[in-house]
Write a structure and sequence with these properties.
The structure holds 3 protein chains of 3 kinds. Chain B is an alpha/beta fold. Chain B contains 11 helices and 18 strands. The longest helix of chain B has 18 residues. Chain C is built from 23 helices and 50 strands. Chain C is 22% helix and 28% strand. Classes of the chains: A mainly beta, B alpha/beta, C alpha+beta.
């Protein structure tokens, strides 16, 4: 697999580390145990196109949101995580 | 027909024209007491134990393709019970004891071969962790030995003792561990279960669940029509999430690809099963002569049943690091299976929140060795509606309760287990 | 000196270099050949027909093919550490001094005792072993299996380390082409002319594919001339690279192709500093598969007799290698192409005994060829072969209409048609489709970017191969963005091709489908009878196609026979899944240089070279080499050295390189808020100039890592991680920053490698430090209190970071200097510390002192323990959210009976403790129900003069003073220990604050 890092260009799989489904969002502090349990443990485990968190640890150390098909491994989109690159000063 | 050297000799006289089908080619009936989804080792073992131990013979096993076409037919055939945590230890030993009588139980030679499973250690910390684990095994009545380097040199003189990046210090040995012929396990259970009346239905894909007004599962829709069921058991590791989704359930499971490799057949070189402790590599040699080896999962969610080069290289690097004499042995075949990676690396066997639907899932890459044990405890659950005591900790709600069984201590990240 | 006569070498022709004779040995016998020979062609030229023995029945076998699909002619090539089992004689290039030995026979190839297995053949049918060897159960491992294992396998691997080197490399191009036959060359021409970067991989050592054996006319030129002209043109193109001896074996995601280059396998051993083989990872925008087709056998009784050979292979041996496989040849064909072998044989002056053609019609051209050549054309099939290990003598022929005939011949060419090479196009689990007109499977789609052309796509005519290749080459170049002109397509005629499918001829005797694995037609019938009808069941039950040839000559015939006996069509029966690699690849090549000491990288601490000079013993910690202890002359063991080091620290001063800790600078106005979210305790309220111990959890509430974090400025923190988790914590924090909390204005910088860090500990630490830091720096307890942290100036002006933190429990500092000064720092500490008896200490002494002090480390941070388990539960802030907070509150994680960290000491003070022992209540018989915990860390405490340890024990903190049992059956040890407070040393912390 090859991933086109928005900062570094197309790079080989070995430079990246996988975390998993990017869809679940970390619940707010007051969301309660069930919501956090769902976030930490439950998975859609999609057979098809999935948005995923990948880390370019062998390159720019950016977290990337990669759209990939789990049936074919085809990658259709790559974008940087919201906080990748320089911090949003004043944001 | 009973299988034996005598029946073989008799059949030879007729040019082997007298053999019957190994299992009946069943057509689906309208209703069964229990329908098992998944004709892999676990599903077939469950059916056999239902019929032989629990007296439930009106059972169907539904298989999407051909039996054993999932991970049962695509693994590295290792059996062992060298686990360290409560929940796993007793269960895998139950399974090991069932391996030890399988062939006589089934009248089928699955080539269960207890040539030993050896985990190498390369540091004091690893040794201590293995000591803890080995002592757990011994306390549970399971055989375990801690070997030092001198013992290893005698046992496996070909290991890389002189030029290792991470020198081998010793290993944890379970002599009763070993291998079994994976396909034969599937066929053996099919053979024996079919003889007891279990219907094995191939090319029958489940496409949905039939529910009554209360939501209870009363049957399944399949590519061969609707089949009614008193209870439905799922044993479809690799596809658990997809099948559970048909019943509206999400699971604490991700599907990942695990590759395995086999070399050309060579004369006996490696006696038992061994795992490298400083890289991702484990190996055994099949009776046919091929080195059967593997390593880590590829690390990303996948249903593609094939892997990529980095892991293949990583595995071979581990192999060369520990057994440098295999450099000129050729890798013959590479394949990938889809693992049900659970959130703590341990399996799930339980009722589900859906009445009438039972779950056997989350085997990670360790499902093969569990085959007889899994079949037995799942049959117990299906027959009696209560967990067998050796599977009591494999509950689905354990993540909610915080009662994980996490041998590797990696937490809720399936690709690290 | 030449040895052996090349009795079957033709006088003329061939692509061999007769001026370069080579001698070699086979089973110790000296033979000779020429440069350009394969081992197989040289054996044939020398009149050798018997080359190997089969897997199960030990039947005598010869040479069936002339390529990598060979099932029979396998040898052990080379000897000693370079012995290569199962090497195909058909692809092994001959070199001077080549040593080959037949395999799977004893005592000799000619007289093989194991051929007695043939007598048991009536019992040794497919899957017989599943039905027997079950009684008594114990006999399997003791008797049956060892015998089976010894009998199975083929060649013997080397038993010592592979002495050769392997390399791995990357290549990038627009178009990669597999195969250099007419289709591949045409593709390369088109793509190359248009300016594309092209890599052409050819498995053989010569470019040309079937052109080398079958000739033909292209663009009006004889094939050889066209080939030479084409190669010259390709060489003139700037970006066309032709790689011979290179097999494209697999296709992976993202247009990555695996290829194996046999760099030096054609030499006795690789020249100095050169590799044996190289693994290529080729990244290509497009791939053209021009890998040709493999001729397939027809299954009939005796079809494994030495001298039975694929017709195309026979042509290759005669025309390319000038080696006559036989003197009097018969042909058994079901198609037009088989006849080419007759033409080739006649041209070479060999006798043709007969052609047995299974088709109803034979073309007039071939009829006249037969009458000119004076041999009969028999309509029918070969149904039996007389002959044994000496080779074919006589053929039985069943004529169409039922009559029988016999043909005397010493060689039989067989052509059952062609199987396009559909491996590469199917490796992404694609299934080929059946074409009735050629009775073969052809690719049906391919992985993204790949296309099959020519014979690999079912186009068997020379003209069609050239056209398809050329079109695909220009399309691939265009797709890759190359727009140059491609010139004109090479042109050749398409010879007629007709075929009558024929898979299996009924007859008496064993008819082999998979020759290497001895799978017969009747085995397939048996499999069907027993319900193994699925092709995957068939394969697994009979082992069809699982041999080293990966079923290249057997799979399609096997499933055709299964189709016939099960009453289904061939496409209904289907194929098994195609799996890479296309040819077997040496494991060493996948490993490359990552073996022995270079298996993984080695990281050295800044003071490593100095420590080496001191004679330090090093230990592997992850990739690091760390000084474990520093033995002095006369010390008898590690314990003595470590004990001395600990005592020196506790009574004077010592130092230890702790640079392996992960170090991260956290900058930004939100740095404090960020740390509050990732640690269980609070950092936003840490005063500038102070340090604080921190603990972070995973989101599931389990402890992840610990370390100290210092606030160096309002918006600048410096945190340390454990050595083991350095990279992972950085990744985790970046995830928190970039994904979870992008709204925070904070930056993370990994500075692990930028700072050399030393722990300096012991009551005389301040005395030593004063010699190092600038005199203006106040190191007094008031000026630099416990948990103080700030930048200081060293004597000489270098800036350092100084932290008053203690892992040992002594008055201690950690000092960080830029990594390039790390070694000088170690040397200076030795010099400056001399008056105070400074002692360098290693990781063992570090570990001893942390156990004495009750600090948790790796064995306790096992990934299953909570903060409370570690005795650090009170650190969890209740005033803020943090990673892991919610999940840490789950019932089982706060249960009162959890195993928690306690201290242990043996009741017998002389007793040694060991980690991994389990804790059982005193007086009880150990069992799963009273297994209450285990010992995590132990050490001999010089301070207490006895062994002590830490353990995780159920309700341990309530049980201080209780005597329990340490149970260690693995090491045969059982003894009593007392549970106690884990802080053995200076529990109120006066020393570290002093």
């Amino acid at each position: 697999m090859r991933i086109v890092c928005p900062f570094c260009g197309e790079r080989e799989l070995g430079e990246f580390t996988y975390l998993g489904d990017a869809k679940p969002q970390r619940p707010a502090a007051d969301a309660g145990e069930d919501a956090v349990y769902d976030y930490v443990y439950m998975r859609d485990n999609i057979a098809g196109v999935m948005s995923e968190n990948w880390y370019h640890g062998g390159g720019c150390r950016s977290w990337l949101k990669v759209t990939r098909n789990t049936l074919t491994h085809e990658i259709s989109a790559v974008e940087a995580a919201a906080g990748a690159g320089a911090a949003k000063v004043g944001a | 027909m009973k299988y034996s050297i005598f029946s073989l000799a008799r059949a030879a006289l007729s040019g082997h024209k007298t053999w019957q089908r190994t299992w009946r080619d069943a057509t689906p009936k309208d209703h069964y007491d229990v329908v098992i989804i998944g004709g892999g080792g676990h599903g077939l073992a469950t059916a056999w134990f239902l019929a032989s131990e629990f007296g439930i013979r009106n059972v169907a096993v539904l298989e999407k393709g051909w039996i054993g076409s999932g991970n049962a037919g695509r693994n590295t055939t290792i059996i062992r019970s060298n686990y360290g945590l409560p929940g796993n230890t007793g269960f895998y030993e139950l399974s090991m004891k069932l391996w030890e009588r399988m062939e006589q139980d089934l009248n089928y030679n699955a080539m269960v071969s207890q040539r030993g499973v050896l985990n190498l250690y390369h540091s004091d910390g690893q040794r201590d962790a293995y000591a803890r684990r080995g002592n757990t095994m011994r306390i549970n009545g399971i055989d375990a030995e801690l070997l030092d380097q001198a013992a290893l040199k005698k046992m496996l003189p070909f290991l890389n003792f002189d030029h290792a990046r991470f020198p081998v210090q010793g290993g944890l040995l379970q002599r009763r561990g070993g291998t079994a012929r994976h396909d034969a396990v599937v066929w053996g259970y099919a053979h024996a279960a079919s003889a007891l009346g279990v219907d094995i239905i191939q090319n029958c894909e489940v496409t949905g669940f039939v529910r009554d007004a209360h939501g209870k599962v009363t049957g399944v829709e399949t590519s061969r029509g609707r089949i009614g069921a008193g209870k439905v058991g799922m044993a479809v590791a690799g596809s658990s999430s997809r099948v559970a989704a048909m019943a509206g359930m999400r699971l604490p499971i991700e599907s990942h690809v695990l590759q395995a490799f086999v070399s050309e057949a060579i004369k006996p070189l490696i006696p038992g099963v061994m795992t490298f402790g400083a890289g991702h590599f484990y190996v055994s040699q099949s009776d046919k002569g091929g080195l059967v080896f593997g390593g880590d999962i590829d690390g990303y969610n996948s249903y593609a049943q094939r892997g990529n080069l980095p892991v293949m290289e990583d595995v071979c690097e581990g192999g060369m690091a520990i057994i440098p004499m295999i450099g000129r042995v050729r890798l013959l075949r590479q394949w990938g299976g889809i693992m049900d990676m659970s959130m703590d690396g341990s399996p799930i066997i339980d009722r589900t929140p859906v009445d009438g639907l039972y779950l056997n899932a989350g085997w990670c890459y360790g499902g093969f060795k569990a085959t007889p044990g899994s079949g037995f405890v799942f049959a117990h659950l299906l027959a009696r509606d209560e967990m067998h005591k050796e599977a009591a900790l494999f509950r689905l709600d354990r993540f909610q309760r915080g009662a994980m069984i996490d041998e590797k201590g990696q937490g809720a990240q399936p690709n690290l287990h | 000196m030449m040895a052996g006569s090349q009795s079957n070498r033709l006088a003329n022709g061939g692509l061999i270099d007769r001026s370069a004779p080579l001698s070699f040995t086979f089973d110790g016998k000296s033979l000779s050949g020429f440069k350009g020979d394969t081992l197989a062609s040289a054996l044939l030229a020398s009149g050798v027909k018997l080359v190997g023995r089969s897997f199960k029945y030990h039947r005598p076998r010869g040479i069936l093919t002339a390529g990598s699909e060979e099932p029979n002619a396998l040898v052990e090539l080379r000897s000693g550490a370079r012995r290569e089992p199962n090497t195909k004689a058909t692809t092994a290039e001959l070199y001077e001094g080549l040593e080959a030995a037949s395999q799977n026979r004893w005592p000799s190839l000619n007289f093989d005792v194991m051929s007695v297995n043939q007598l048991f053949a009536p019992i040794f049918v497919a899957g017989f072993y599943y039905k027997t060897f079950m009684w008594p159960a114990k006999f399997w491992e003791a008797i049956y299996e060892p015998a089976i294992r010894r009998a199975a396998g083929l060649g013997r691997a080397a038993t010592v380390s592979d002495p050769d080197h392997y390399d791995k490399a990357w290549a990038h191009c627009d178009v990669v082409i597999a195969g250099s036959g007419p289709a591949g060359l045409a593709a390369a021409l088109a793509a190359g002319r248009s300016g594309a970067r092209v890599i052409l991989c050819e498995e053989d050592f010569v470019v040309g594919g079937r052109l080398l054996s079958d000739g033909g006319t292209i663009d009006g030129l004889p094939a050889a001339e066209w080939l030479a002209r084409t190669l010259a043109e390709l060489a003139s193109l700037p970006d066309v690279r032709i790689m011979t001896r290179t097999t494209l074996f697999g296709v992976y995601d993202g247009g990555t192709y695996g290829a194996i280059e046999r760099v030096n396998d054609h030499l006795p051993s690789p020249p100095e500093h050169e590799v044996r083989q190289r693994l290529w990872r080729i990244v290509a925008k497009r791939c053209v598969v021009a890998a040709g087709a493999l001729e397939r056998p027809i299954v009939f009784a005796g079809n494994d007799t030495p001298g039975v050979m694929m017709a195309s292979a026979m042509r290759s041996y005669i025309s390319r290698y000038a080696a006559a496989p036989a003197k009097r040849i018969a042909l058994f064909t079901n198609n037009e192409h088989g006849w080419r072998t007759v033409e080739t044989a006649l041209e070479a002056g060999l006798q043709v005994a007969a052609v047995i053609d299974a088709r109803a019609e034979v073309s007039p051209v071939h009829r006249s060829l037969a009458s000119k050549g004076g041999f009969p054309v028999l309509h029918g099939s070969v149904s039996g072969v007389d002959g044994g290990k000496a080779g074919v003598r006589k053929l039985s022929v069943s004529l169409t209409g039922g009559a029988r005939a016999e043909v005397e011949a010493d060689g039989l060419a067989v052509s059952g048609g062609w199987n396009p090479t559909v491996g590469l196009t199917s490796y992404h689990r694609g299934r080929p489709k059946w074409r009735d007109d050629i009775a073969a499977f052809v690719p049906d789609g391919a992985p993204p970017g790949m296309v099959a052309v020519g014979a690999a796509n079912g186009a068997f005519g020379l003209g069609a191969c050239l056209r398809e290749g050329f079109e695909a080459g220009s399309a691939a170049a265009r797709d890759a963005g190359r727009s140059g002109g491609t010139g004109s397509t090479p042109v050749a005629d398409d010879a007629a091709f007709s075929l009558t499918p024929l898979w299996h001829v009924a007859g008496k005797g064993k008819a082999f489908v998979d020759q290497q694995h001895d799978v017969t037609a009747s085995d397939i019938e048996l499999a069907q009878r027993e319900g193994f009808e699925s092709v995957e069941h068939l394969k697994r039950y009979t082992t069809l196609g699982m041999a080293t040839d990966q079923g290249k000559t057997s799979n399609v015939a096997g499933l055709a026979i299964m189709a016939a006996v099960s009453g289904r069509s061939i496409p209904e029966t289907g194929t098994t899944i195609y799996r890479p690699p296309y040819v077997p690849v040496a494991i060493g090549a996948f490993a490359g240089h990552h073996r022995d000491e270079n298996f993984h990288a080695t990281r050295l601490t800044p003071s490593h070279h100095w420590a080496s000079e001191q004679g330090a013993i090093f230990v592997d910690t992850g990739l690091w080499k760390r000084a474990q202890w520093y033995p002095l002359a006369g010390e008898k063991d590690w314990l003595e050295s470590v004990t001395r080091e600990v005592k020196a620290v506790r009574s004077g001063v010592g130092f230890c390189d702790v640079s392996t800790l992960g170090k991260i600078d956290v900058h930004g106005p939100d740095a404090g808020a960020f740390l509050d979210r990732v640690y269980i305790n609070t950092f936003s309220n840490l005063a500038v100039g102070k340090a604080r111990y921190g603990l972070m959890l995973r989101e599931d509430g389990i402890v992840y890592d610990d370390g100290t974090t210092s606030r160096l400025a309002e918006d600048h923190y410096f945190l340390t991680t454990t050595t083991a988790k350095a990279g992972l914590v950085m990744q985790h924090l970046e995830f928190c920053r970039q994904v979870l909390f992008p709204e925070l204005d904070v930056q993370l910088t990994s500075v692990s490698d930028q700072w050399a860090q030393f722990s300096i500990a012991g009551p005389k630490t301040r005395d030593l430090l004063k010699q190092i830091v600038d005199p203006t720096e106040d190191l007094s307890n008031e000026g630099f209190p416990f948990m103080g942290a700030r930048e200081v100036k060293l004597r000489g002006g270098i800036k350092a970071r100084l932290f008053r933190i203690s892992f040992s429990g002594e008055m201690a500092f950690e000092i960080s200097v830029p990594a390039r000064h790390g070694e000088a720092m170690a040397r200076n500490l030795m010099i400056a510390g001399k008056p105070f008896g400074v002692t360098p200490y290693g990781t063992e002494a570090l570990g001893v002192m942390r156990v004495e002090k009750g600090h948790v480390a790796g064995p306790e941070l096992s990934g299953t323990t909570t903060a409370s388990d570690l005795g650090l539960g009170k650190m969890m802030s209740t005033k803020k959210d943090f990673i892991g907070r919610v999940m840490a509150g789950r019932e089982a994680l706060v249960a009162p009976d959890r195993q928690v960290v306690v201290g242990i000491k043996p009741t017998d003070k002389a007793r040694r403790l060991r980690s991994g022992a389990h804790i059982i209540p005193k007086g009880e018989i150990p069992g799963p129900d009273n297994d209450q915990g285990y010992v995590t860390s132990v050490c001999f405490s010089p301070t207490l003069d006895q062994w002590i340890g830490l353990a995780l024990v159920e309700r341990g903190r309530e049980r201080f003073g209780e005597i329990v049992h340490a149970h260690d059956p693995l090491r045969g040890e059982d003894y009593d220990v007392e549970l106690c407070n884990p802080v053995f040393y200076d529990p109120d912390g006066g020393r570290q604050r002093g």
